[in-house]
Amino acid sequence: MEEIITKLSNFIAAKILKQPKRVISPTESLISSGLIDSFSLMDVSLFVEDTFGVRIEDTELNADTFDSLEQLAKLIMSRQ
Fold it and tell me: Which CATH class is domain 2-21+28-79?
């Protein structure tokens, strides 16, 4: 799970936030804190699908499923 979180964190920091040196905690709120917006969710979803081979439904692109790296990593692991 740690490797998945690291890849997600690096992608979000570099590509979404444009802050490659930023460290995102596994439990840090992504959506509810405003760190990433709804447009960025699509980019993260595509990254997950391309990198991990896991399909994420449009209905899952919300704070209930996607609000932390830890939540997202658990979702990815459950589908691999």
Answer: mainly alpha
- Specify burial of residue 63 (Cβ count, 10 A radius: 0-12, 13-18, 19+): middle
Q: What's this model's pTM, rounded to 2 decimal places?
A: 0.93
Q: Give the pLDDT confidence of 11-36 residue by residue, as tens digits.
A: 999 999 999 999 999 999 999 999 99
Q: At what angle do helices 2-11 and 38-52 cross, to 10 degrees?
A: 130
What does the DSSP 8-state code read for residue 12?
I
Give me the DSSP letters along 29-66: -STTTTSS-HHHHHHHHHHHHHHH-----GGG-SHHHH
